[in-house]
Amino acid sequence: MEDDETELQNPFPSPPSHYTKYTTHNLKLLSLLRERAGDDALTANQREILSDQTEVPDWQLTQLEKPRVDWILDEQEAYYDVFGDRWFVKDKILSLGDAGGNQLYPSDPTIDRRPALRSILRSLLATYSSLMSSLLLPPPLNAEEPPEWQRHVDWISNLATNLMAAANDLRPVQARGNLESMMRRQLELRKEETKAMHEKCDALEEKLREIRSSVANVSTTQSLHIPNVPQVPSGETLIPPGLQPQVQQNQQLSERDVLLWAEQMR
After folding, report:
1. Does residue 106 contact residue 113 with C-beta atoms inside 8 Å?
2. What is the CA radius of gyration of the chain?
3. What pTM was estimated for this model as a whole?
4. Contact criterion met (CB below 8 Å) for 242 and 265
5. Is 130 exposed, middle or buried (0-12, 13-18, 19+ CB in 10 A)?
6. Which residues have CB under 8 Å from 72's CB, separation 6+?
7. What per-residue confidence (pLDDT) applies to 127?
8. pLDDT tens per residue across span 13-24
9. How far apart are CA 198 and CA 14, in angstroms?
10. How far apart are CA 35 and CA 141, in angstroms?
């Protein structure tokens, strides 16, 4: 009894207790029962059919079948009840008139509601002015008769409810407009980023062309200033002119002779 009271006091009720039956083993047994019994799975003796299996439960495995949603969809207004609340399969926003209120604007969304809303707003302002005047009147002699200010307050509440309901009906239109604006802004940002990337690539290509051109000019200049170096035949040694007489006399060159010749060339 205490558990039931605790469950009723909980604003978010726990799921039904049979959710613990949806184990991997039980679902496997249900699949095997379908395969062996076919359409007679509801009336078949599951213990005889699954005699070669272990841990076959005493309750019917067909309880684990998913609910037939197609049965619900066949109804004109498809709905289901969960924890005492009714939910519609196809969400439908009820208008103020369908919800039992006094709707003062047209229900058809294709009709322009602005004239009706302007009339409601003017009536609201006029009723508010009348309310201020009625507060100065003495209370009615008949206690059962409601005071005049009460009638004005009720009418103001009705007008305000119509304004709020009409504004709420425009929520989908507003959401669609905001989504279009966000997508348009994202497209503009991507275009700007793409343009900046192209400009950066063009600048890098121009810089590479300048570098290639400068490298080519430097190579050409160096090739023009290189002195003519005599070609040495294969197997021969280039002898400086100052040391050629000694070589011709078959005199052997020493390190001292080379250093002397280098001092003279300075």
Report:
1. yes
2. 49
3. 0.39
4. yes
5. middle
6. 78, 79, 80, 89
7. 92
8. 677 777 888 889
9. 59
10. 83
